[in-house]
Design a protein that fits this description.
- The complex is a heterodimer of chains A (681) and B (312).
- Chain A is mostly helical and 681 residues long.
- Chain A folds into 3 domains: 214 residues, no CATH class; 210 residues, no CATH class; 81 residues, no CATH class.
- Chain A contains 24 helices and 6 strands.
- In chain A, the strands form 2 sheets. Chain A has a 3-stranded antiparallel β-sheet. In chain A, strands 1-2 form a two-stranded antiparallel ribbon.
- The termini of chain A are far apart.
- The model of chain B has no long low-confidence stretch (mean pLDDT 90).
- Chain B has one domain.
- Chain B is an all-alpha fold.
- Chain B contains 11 helices and 1 strand, in the order ααβααααααααα.
- The longest helix of chain B is centred in the first third of the chain and has 32 residues.
- In chain B, α1 packs across α3, α4 runs antiparallel to α5 and α7 packs antiparallel against α11.
- Classes of the chains: A mainly alpha (681), B mainly alpha (312).
- The interface between A and B is large, with 94 and 94 residues.
């Protein structure tokens, strides 16, 4: 076991386990205190915060350290309890812990929304959820990985059905089914690997020699299994229903952290365990699924009125963008271009972190609005920037980040993704040359649609006049909720402007995961993909935009006249002479109407798929109906004749069994005679 | 990090472009007047208009929030930053840290984001329809821009705008047909981005009362009008810098810079005259038919892609 000096001289994994123990105590404490909502909230929240801090303390030093391993002899020979903190796991633990930290801070006020509806149980499931996610990413044994993975799915299932209404229960059931179908595929992949490795330890998986076809089979099983968890299209059906049903801070964790474990699993199986494979189509498959998920995710998001559903569809989109980077990384491994492999995987991992941060922020922001207005329908919001300025500012930062607006973090990781696609297109085989520019174009389409979607989201919720309901009594969200959002908003800015410092660390994580030489991706304040492929400097852009903003302000001050009357507000916007009212303002539906018109075929696809599901359901109904009709038919044609035949046979045999003692004696004599005759022969 | 010469040139070209932008929009008005066979205002009329707006009272609608008030400033600032990175007088990007094709496209998205958001924030129904159309055009145009520029970038081996321009000017690109087709597709996208007839969807004066600009007045309107003129100049300069860099300065020699400047001005004037002629000889496309037109751009860019793949 490698000891890494970290906080208080504890090895990272010891610190991590200590945090998980605190989390367990907090979870059970919250369950015991379930009759006192306030106490349960605080116990669960404080334990969660401590555990998250321990997680960050354990993970941050491990980014650049050699992997540390904790090996406890397991209960069974095949189930060694092995934990491994390698750079990739450190990255995941950081993401989970950071989001958990903000979600717990946020929850201190937010769970009041759920007062009297089992806050204690929520604290328990949240703690279990975070702890099992953390353990999943550090587990280094197939058996324990699956155990923790299942724990994670179960804990989040209970959070999804927390509201107990019809929608939540049916969304939860769908989630349950898809999650377990995915688990079965992952299990199959691990068992095949174990068959060749002779053990369920990941260490043995890494060195196992698999024939090419088997290796591809394991990859496809793992890709589909973890892809279902990640919510990539077409395995996403559960995501837009399950995430909105959960409480907002749980949605933030599910969308920000849990679906990333799906991506982590894909990287783990394809790159870490199978070594990236020797065939190009693995990476191309991942790029293809990524591009489709990105475009369709955002197209479907645009048509949504429900703010949390909109955000959930955006998770599908961003998983697609992450997969683009990961896919290019795998193409790089297969085509023996280590620099490309590191660049692609780095871009994917960077977007993974960024999406966790801004999507967490956006879900928390949506939660604040729902906390005050008690509706998820955007068309009943509007004008909240004046009554909830802090929430609006945080949400705007999140919206700009997710729309990849420079110089925030979403732009940085998408820039690297473009650069990796570009580098792949420059020196790839014909198929790669063909696929990657198309993927880049689809990424541009995704970016433009995302801008539209978040202008709509921010605009309809926070800008203009209140729509639908009048809510003049709405006040700003409580301080702890703002603190949670504010922390993530700051991280959005830092991971954007601080990219020249962060990208090299992520590059080393990617190179350590692939087992390749580190690649230089930043110098001074500039970022670059490969040498001479173009540069960008987010801090410089930020300085320039802020500096240049002085010019219009100065021009306005200098050129306007002293005699000009002071600015004033008009009585109403101009409406071609009519009296304007709230019905005239843009709604979530009307704003996206042109896209719904222009992209009708894509929505048609979704409707067709839904119709196909309905057909399946209908066919199932027919089957049940048929079975019901068939049952009596079996009765009539087989059971009934047999029964009646038996009856009539019995009645005929009654002749023999007449009840006369003398005839019975005669039978015995006859039998004796027959037996004697047989014996004498 | 750029050295001082480059940095000064970057800031300078951005400021000069801002100062000259009303001249360019004035030129368009002169061409329009000529096409209508009327006298029309002089080429300096837009400066006078801006001056007049600047001393008027600023009136904003009751619903307007921070997004509405911030937009004129953010829009101009972002456009000025875009202008620092585009190669105009020189063959290289003066500030390559802002002169990457991806960065430029996404900085335009920053402009679009706030422009449309301000439309929604004004609470006016005309402004929100304009905002929706502005973003829809972005959706239709950005993929064409990216694909055509990526084709040129692949031929040049770099996503830096200056490097692409240099490769095209020196004839290093192998595939002539692909370059020409990519230039055609990009020109088409740039034309839509100009917001002129037949594609003046978002700010259509006659139809939408200038869309997102409906509720602006006084100094704010002056800033937005100025920014829109600047944006038109920048997108044309963008096209010139990447696909028509011939004659631009390869270093900082005074004669080279002078020739580069003259060439740049001549190209911009020529293009705007051509654009003016086109603009005044067509009628507006119905908004719902725009995708058919943008498919044309996608087709052009895809053809460039095919030519690139086969290496023609």
């Amino acid at each position: 076991m490698t000891m890494i000096p970290s906080l208080g001289g504890l090895a990272p994994l010891d610190l991590l386990l200590a945090g998980i123990a605190v989390s367990a105590v907090g979870g059970f404490g919250s369950l015991l205190l379930r009759s006192h909502d306030r106490a349960a909230t605080i116990v669960a929240g404080l334990a969660g915060i401590l555990a998250a801090l321990a997680g960050l303390g354990a993970a941050l030093p491990s980014f650049v350290a050699p992997p540390s391993v904790l090996d406890v002899a397991g209960p069974y020979p095949f189930a060694h309890f092995v934990l491994r903190m390698d750079p990739l796991a450190a990255l995941m633990v950081t993401v989970i812990s950071l989001l958990a930290l903000t979600a717990w801070i946020y929850s201190l006020a937010y769970v009041r929304e759920y007062a009297g509806r089992g806050v204690g149980a929520m604290g328990f499931f949240m703690n279990a959820f975070v702890a099992s996610m953390t353990l999943t990413v550090v587990a280094d044994n197939g058996f324990w990985f699956l155990i923790f993975f299942e724990m994670m799915s179960l804990a989040s299932y209970f959070l999804v059905i927390f509201d107990q209404n019809d929608e939540a229960v049916s969304a939860g059931f769908l989630y349950f089914v898809v999650a377990h179908a995915g688990s079965v595929l992952i299990m199959a992949a691990f068992f095949i690997l174990a068959n060749y490795a002779g053990s369920l330890d990941f260490a043995a998986f890494r060195t196992a020699k698999l024939p090419g076809a088997v290796s591809s089979l394991v990859f496809v099983l793992g890709f589909l299994g973890f892809g279902a968890k990640a919510g990539m299209i077409p395995l996403h059906i559960w995501l837009p229903r399950a995430h909105p049903a959960a409480p907002s801070h749980a949605s933030a964790l599910m969308s920000g952290a849990m679906i990333k474990i799906g991506v982590f699993g894909i990287v783990k199986v394809a790159v870490d365990l199978l070594g990236g494979g020797e065939v190009l189509w693995w990476g191309l498959l991942v790029v293809g699924f990524g591009a489709v998920s990105a475009v369709l995710g955002v197209v479907y998001a645009l048509a949504e009125h429900d703010i949390k559903k909109l955000l959930a569809y955006h998770s599908v989109e961003n998983i697609g963008i992450i997969l683009l980077g990961v896919g290019v990384g795998m193409i790089g491994i297969a085509s023996h271009q280590p620099a490309l492999a590191v660049l692609g995987l780095m871009a994917g991992l960077y977007h993974l972190i960024n999406h966790a941060v801004f999507k967490g922020l956006l879900f928390l922001g949506a939660g604040s609005v729902i906390y005050r207005l008690h509706t998820k329908n955007m068309d009943q919001m509007g004008g909240l920037a004046r009554t909830m300025p802090a929430t609006a500012t945080c949400f705007l930062i999140g919206a700009l980040s997710i729309s990849a607006i420079p110089p925030l973090n979403g732009f940085v990781s998408e820039w690297y993704t473009y650069q990796s696609l570009f580098a792949a297109a420059l020196d790839g085989s014909a198929l790669v040359k063909f696929a990657t520019p198309i993927a880049a174009m689809l990424l541009a389409l995704t970016g433009a649609l995302a801008v539209m979607c978040f202008v709509k989201a921010y605009g309809v919720i926070f800008a203009g006049d209140p729509r639908g309901l009048r809510h003049n009594d709405v006040v700003e969200a409580p301080p702890t909720m703002i603190a949670g959002m504010g922390l993530l908003a700051v991280v959005c800015v830092v991971t954007g402007l601080g990219a020249p410092l962060i990208a090299p660390i992520l590059s080393s994580v990617a190179s350590a995961t692939i087992g390749a030489q580190a690649v230089s991706v930043a110098e001074g304040a500039s970022l670059f993909g490969s040498a001479n492929h173009g540069t960008v400097s987010p801090p410089l852009i930020a300085v320039l935009v802020i500096g240049m903003a002085g010019l219009p302000l100065g021009l306005r001050a200098v050129l306007s006249n002293r005699g000009t009357p002071k600015p004033r507000r008009a009585a109403a916007p101009w409406a071609a002479g009519y009296l304007p009212d709230a019905e005239m303002a843009a709604s979530a539906g009307s704003f996206a109407q042109p896209i719904r018109m222009f992209f009708r075929p894509l929505y048609q696809v979704r409707d067709d798929v839904a119709a196909a599901w309905d057909k399946v359901a209908f066919a199932f109904e027919r089957l049940v109906c048929f079975a019901r009709q068939t049952e009596p038919r079996w009765d009539r044609s087989i059971i009934d004749p047999i029964a009646s035949a038996t009856g009539s046979l019995g009645r005929r045999l009654q002749v023999v069994q007449g009840g006369d003692f003398r005839i019975y004696c005669l039978y015995i004599v006859a039998a004796l005679v027959v037996l004697l005759a047989l014996a004498a022969r | 990090m750029p050295d001082l010469d480059h940095f000064v040139l970057a800031i300078l070209q951005s400021l000069v472009l801002l100062a000259a932008a009303p001249l360019v929009s004035g030129l368009s008005r002169v061409v329009r007047a000529k096409m209508h066979t009327r006298h029309g205002p002089g080429v300096l009329q837009d400066y006078r208009d801006l001056r007049k707006l600047m001393i008027r009272q600023d009136i904003c609608p009751p619903a307007a929030g921070p997004a509405f008030r911030a937009m004129p400033v953010v829009m101009m600032a972002a456009l000025l930053v875009i202008a620092t990175g585009i190669p105009m007088v020189t063959r290289f990007s003066p500030l390559s840290a802002c002169g990457d094709l991806i960065t430029t496209i996404y900085l335009f998205a920053l402009v679009r984001f706030f422009f449309a958001l301000a439309g929604l924030d004004s609470g006016s129904s005309f402004a929100s329809i304009g905002a929706s159309r502005e973003l829809t055009l972005g959706v239709l145009v950005e993929p064409v821009m990216l694909l055509s520029l990526i084709m040129a970038a692949l031929l040049a081996g770099s996503t830096d705008l200056g490097a692409i321009g240099a490769a095209i000017a020196s004839g290093q690109v192998q595939s002539i047909m692909a370059t020409v087709l990519a230039a055609g597709a990009f020109a088409f996208a740039v034309y839509i981005e100009l917001g002129k007839l037949p594609y003046d969807m978002a700010e259509a004066e006659q139809e939408l009362q200038e869309g997102p600009l409906t509720e602006y007045s006084g100094p704010s309107l002056a800033l937005v009008k100025w920014s829109m003129a600047l944006k038109q100049t920048i997108v044309v300069a963008w096209f010139v810098g990447v696909f028509l860099p011939f004659g631009s300065a390869v270093d900082f020699s005074p004669s080279g810079l002078a020739i580069g400047l003259l060439g740049f001005v001549a190209k911009i004037v020529l293009i705007f005259v051509v654009v003016g002629v086109v603009e005044n000889s067509v009628s507006r496309v119905r908004f719902r038919f725009t995708p058919r037109h943008s498919w044309f751009g996608v087709g052009f860019a895809s053809l460039a892609f095919v030519f690139y793949l086969v290496g023609l």
